Structure formats: structure tokens, C-alpha cells
């Protein structure tokens, strides 16, 4: 097992200390630790962090790793590499694969593959309904006895209220999290963009806010009346924020995530008709991004989740209406959250640790993630360089796919090092930003 001495690191962006990692845990933190004076520090690899920021490893509640079924666009291995490069030590991969993850042996296979590869803990999300068909509940009980702690039909909404009611009751009985992709499909049949002025001008079918908000409203009321724990995937509208604020004020057990792209981008991006900007829910308007930023700051929205959704160029470099929805997120999310909140002065690194690691770990009840940076704690950590500017190029990302909406964008913050149980899963080298990996 690796023994590492991180010199001159700033936990949460605060005062510089030395951190010793041994046997997968943080064994010592201090200002005096030196490789020459203490027996315990002998043989450690010394990494001079030069004031870089140390955070608990990031946890992503919402990714799509496409295995099984679309290994041409992402696999558990390439997705784990992308996650490690993004600073993540645990991710939850959605059930909308082929086959759908709706039985225990399929969920077990995802978990085992992630563990065998070893770059990131890959937790399988179980489907709520068999085959994501929205009709028959899947084996929620059996799957919850294995590695599944969250259930979602993500990609599709559980539209039928009676099916959702049963799911809420089951999830309560098994004490698992239900994550809803809130979209009333009856309102979005031909929708490819946010319903508003931009879509009208560009002649694109509109996806109205109410298609999301009506489901959020229904599901928080179900949770109020039938119990359990509800999570709202990719909250995207001002109205969803208002509903969440109300629900939380009532003490309803609901949590919510927002994606980096819904915090940063608006439907103005659609002017070029570039399919890379097609995503579900769609990019909305600036009043929504403002409301979502405020909601994340005040805790109404709990966490950032990337909704990392790899697609091949044959599905993205086509007419906007025919492009598959979804965009990459794992390798750019920390840079975006740093830009929107830290570089702008709206929040500090403690906030980033909270929304990208501590809260997701808490919601999913992960005992070994999102932990304090303290002696005796597991060494699931990310070293962040707030001053290492880099330019995004889809072809250079670790992900097997290239569908990033940030092609050519320069960000200031990058990941220098990621540690999973004390082992290095990603280490930045100068070539990371210059050499193509595919
Ligand atoms: C996701 C996908 O590609 O699987 N697409 C997307 O636009 N977000 C599904 C989803 O999260 O809804
Ligand atoms: Zn979704």
C-alpha cells in the first residue's frame, strides 16, 4: 500500500499543513511533519503540493457509464478513469443500460467490474421499473440487499402515479433512495429544447418547465403522505427550486441535485444548432440558472451531480432534433463549480466539499466518502490546483466519448491528484493537456 506525504497542502483551502497517508487512511496531519524527522514518515513518497487545495474525494450521484450495452461510448473502466481525473472517488451509474439494471446479478456485475478496475467506487443504480417500462416494479428488495442503495428510471420518468406510489412505498420499506427524472413525457413528446423565446425563434420543439415541475410537485406530496426518501435528478427550473423550498420547509424528506451545465449554460447556446448542447432536461434561461445557483448556496438544492452522458459522434454530430440528449460532465465539473462559486467569490472550498462530496455521501449513506480531512479517516481525497489553467478538448478527455459542451473553453481550476483509499487513481502530468488519449 502506498505511503504518501502531502507537503504544504491546504485542506479546504485553509492553512497549509503536511498530511501523511498510510495503509489507505490519513495517519497524521501537522505543521511539523517532515520526511527526515519522524520514523512514521520514512519511505513515504513526498509530494510537494505547493499550497494546492485538499478536499475529500468527490462523489457523483448521477453518471451514465454505458456498460453493459454501449461500450463503444463508455465503459466502467473508461468512465472510472474520467471520474478519477475529475477528482471523484465514488460515482453512481444509472440503470438505463442495455440490458437495464433491474436484477441483482446485473447490479452485482457493475459493482464487481468497478472494484476490479479499482480507479473509483462505481455504485450501480437499480431501475425502479422492469426494463424502465414504467409498469412493473423491479426487484427493489433483492437489489437493495446487494450494492444498490438508490433506484431510478433515469432517462425516463416514472409517469404513472400509481406505479410511483408503489415505488415510494417499497423504497420506504427497504430504506433506499428513489431518484426521479422529473419529466411528464406527455408534455415533451417532440421536445428538444427549453420552451421559450430561443426555441420559438429557432423552430425547435419546446420542453416546458411545467413538465418537470408538475412531477416534482406530485412526488414531494407522495413523499409527504407515504414516506420514504425522494431525490430529484437534475433540477433545472426556477419553479422546481420554489417547490423544493416549500417541501423542505414542510419537513418532507426530499433532496435534489443540479448539474454543472444547468448552473453555467443557457439555451442561448442553441443558436448554432449544435447537437452537443441537446440535453435532458434542456438548457434553460438565465433566471433558472440564477435560481439554481442561489438554491445550491442556501441548501435548497443539496448537491452537484454531473449527469455525465457519453454519446458517440454518430448520435451527436447530426441535426439538432436527431441528436441524442446528454453531455459529458465528469472531467469538467470541478472546474465549473470552482469558476461559478469560488473564483466569483460567492462561496469557498468548504462549500465545494459540501455539495460535491459531503452531502452526496450523506444522502447515499456512504460510510467512507465525504469524510472530514482528519487523522484516522479514509484517504479518499482530491488535490485541487486552483491556478492551473487548461483548455477543454473533447478528444483529450479520458472519457471514451467526446461530447463536451465546453470544447475550446479555458478553465482555471484542475485536478492534480486523486486518491482512493490512499492509492493514486489520477496524477496530472504536463502531457494530460497536450496528448490525445484516444
Ligand atoms: C441521459 C442519457 O444520455 O442517458 N441523457 C440526458 O440528456 N441527461 C439520460 C438522463 O439523465 O435523463
Ligand atoms: Zn435524467
Automatic annotation (TrEMBL):
<feature type="binding site">
    <location>
        <position position="62"/>
    </location>
    <ligand>
        <name>Zn(2+) 1</name>
    </ligand>
</feature>
<keyword id="KW-0479">Metal-binding</keyword>
<feature type="binding site">
    <location>
        <begin position="64"/>
        <end position="66"/>
    </location>
    <ligand>
        <name>substrate</name>
    </ligand>
</feature>
<protein>
    <recommendedName>
        <fullName>Dihydroorotase</fullName>
        <ecNumber>3.5.2.3</ecNumber>
    </recommendedName>
</protein>
<comment type="pathway">
    <text>Pyrimidine metabolism; UMP biosynthesis via de novo pathway; (S)-dihydroorotate from bicarbonate: step 3/3.</text>
</comment>
<keyword id="KW-0665">Pyrimidine biosynthesis</keyword>
<feature type="binding site">
    <location>
        <position position="234"/>
    </location>
    <ligand>
        <name>Zn(2+) 2</name>
    </ligand>
</feature>
<feature type="binding site">
    <location>
        <position position="311"/>
    </location>
    <ligand>
        <name>substrate</name>
    </ligand>
</feature>
<dbReference type="InterPro" id="IPR002195">
    <property type="entry name" value="Dihydroorotase_CS"/>
</dbReference>
<feature type="binding site">
    <location>
        <position position="280"/>
    </location>
    <ligand>
        <name>substrate</name>
    </ligand>
</feature>
<dbReference type="InterPro" id="IPR050138">
    <property type="entry name" value="DHOase/Allantoinase_Hydrolase"/>
</dbReference>
<feature type="binding site">
    <location>
        <position position="64"/>
    </location>
    <ligand>
        <name>Zn(2+) 1</name>
    </ligand>
</feature>
<keyword id="KW-0378">Hydrolase</keyword>
<feature type="binding site">
    <location>
        <begin position="325"/>
        <end position="326"/>
    </location>
    <ligand>
        <name>substrate</name>
    </ligand>
</feature>
<feature type="binding site">
    <location>
        <position position="154"/>
    </location>
    <ligand>
        <name>Zn(2+) 2</name>
    </ligand>
</feature>
<feature type="binding site">
    <location>
        <position position="181"/>
    </location>
    <ligand>
        <name>Zn(2+) 2</name>
    </ligand>
</feature>
<feature type="active site">
    <location>
        <position position="307"/>
    </location>
</feature>
<feature type="binding site">
    <location>
        <position position="96"/>
    </location>
    <ligand>
        <name>substrate</name>
    </ligand>
</feature>
<comment type="similarity">
    <text>Belongs to the metallo-dependent hydrolases superfamily. DHOase family. Class I DHOase subfamily.</text>
</comment>
<dbReference type="InterPro" id="IPR024403">
    <property type="entry name" value="DHOase_cat"/>
</dbReference>
<feature type="domain" description="Dihydroorotase catalytic">
    <location>
        <begin position="51"/>
        <end position="237"/>
    </location>
</feature>
<dbReference type="InterPro" id="IPR011059">
    <property type="entry name" value="Metal-dep_hydrolase_composite"/>
</dbReference>
<dbReference type="GO" id="GO:0004151">
    <property type="term" value="F:dihydroorotase activity"/>
</dbReference>
<keyword id="KW-0862">Zinc</keyword>
<dbReference type="InterPro" id="IPR004722">
    <property type="entry name" value="DHOase"/>
</dbReference>
<dbReference type="Pfam" id="PF12890">
    <property type="entry name" value="DHOase"/>
</dbReference>
<feature type="binding site">
    <location>
        <position position="307"/>
    </location>
    <ligand>
        <name>Zn(2+) 1</name>
    </ligand>
</feature>
<feature type="binding site">
    <location>
        <position position="154"/>
    </location>
    <ligand>
        <name>Zn(2+) 1</name>
    </ligand>
</feature>
<dbReference type="InterPro" id="IPR032466">
    <property type="entry name" value="Metal_Hydrolase"/>
</dbReference>
<comment type="function">
    <text>Catalyzes the reversible cyclization of carbamoyl aspartate to dihydroorotate.</text>
</comment>
